[in-house]
Amino acid sequence: MDVSSVFFTNMRCHFGDSLLNKLDRLMTQTGIEKIDFKSKFCAIKIHFGEPGNLAFLRPNFAKTVADRIKKLGGLPFLTDCGTLYVGRRTHALAHLEAAFENGFHPLAAGCQILIADGLKGSDDVEVPVPTGVVVKSAMIGRAIMDADIVVSLNHFKGHELTGFGGAIKNLGMGSGSRIGKMIMHNDGKPSVEKKKCLGCQTCAKFCAQSAITFQDKKALIDHAKCVGCGRCLGSCNYHAISIAWDSSNSSLNYKMAEYALAVVQGRPNFHINVINHVSPYCDCHQENDAAVVPDLGIYASYDPVALDLACIEAVNQAAPLTGSILAERGKDQADHFTNIHPTTNWRDQIDHAVKIGLGRNKYKLIEVK
Ligand code: SF4
Ligand code: SF4
Hints:
Blueprint: E1 4-9, H1 19-30, E2 41-45, H2 59-71, E3 75-80, H3 92-101, H4 106-109, E4 112-115, E5 124-128, E6 137-141, H5 142-146, E7 149-155, E8 157-159, E9 163-165, H6 167-175, H7 178-185, E10 191-192, H8 202-206, E11 212-215, E12 218-221, H9 231-235, E13 241-242, H10 249-264, E14 269-275, E15 297-301, H11 304-317, H12 325-329, H13 336-340, H14 346-355, E16 363-367
Parallel strand pairs: 1-16, 2-3, 2-7, 3-4, 7-14
Antiparallel strand pairs: 1-15, 5-6, 8-9, 10-13, 11-12, 14-15
Helix pairs in contact: 1-2, 6-10, 10-14
Bound molecules: iron/sulfur cluster (2 copies).
Residues 192, 197-203, 219, 235-236, 238, 240-241 line the site of one iron/sulfur cluster.
């Protein structure tokens, strides 16, 4: 039976040591130096956190990873792609400001920061997914695809649509450009909210399909012409254009796993999950809510699926924290993620990732002191 190795270290720390030293030892003992980093660009895929959220990973973790890669001769950079929804990370300028505000400036992070899909989320690369079941190609932020090596550094937590958020989600959803995220979230087309539209006509200039016309000085999208590229969403400074978030959660999990495969296939990749402040929701929210279980440790593997599964099982074995949403809702203590988000099914994400060859659902745990 094929089994992947997942290395972990707990959150205990003795005098003279530090959690960052432990992270460095974890990377080394997992075998990160087997990757030839010499003079290679290495994308460290991370989520900088929506301003207001305090559960996202501290930049100190990123610096430790970047420093190790630099010691191995690599050229690391921290990266993420823009978001679809209204927030502080919809275009590169706002995204960089949000990252800086959360402490991710080059001095603190130990390397430069690039928004992978460009100013307005349209700088992407179409990547074939040969084993894809629901997508045959993925639209991935260019800087991520231009890198020679991908390392994902993931805050492990709950998620309102996908059950949990770990390596697969950070790689898959997080690396999708605007159109990529639209494809993952929605099988349909965007619409204009008339009340917010000022009739400035900017969106129409960005639409290569001439799908946007105007009635009573309000934009109107012709869904017969629209190809769902998402360019108009990024062009509207007034957040008047949005998509219906109606793709089923299972479909979203499948697409996300296929996007993650597009990111890692054919090049060296390495993954780290930090199980601390396990918030019930994504770090995309400006609020993070109380942690649902205690901080459990840092996990690393070459296999993003085995890594996520090991973290799911570690969280599910932990006692709910008093005062958390899990303590309020924890009817079936065996599955914390489903207790928190009953309409989600995290197994879809893992099972599909295994089916398409992203990784394995069998692992052995190896502790690093
Ligand atoms: S860019 Fe936005 S505000 Fe301007 S016309 Fe289009 S939808 Fe309306
Ligand atoms: S999604 Fe693309 S094709 Fe559709 S209206 Fe917007 S810019 Fe035009």
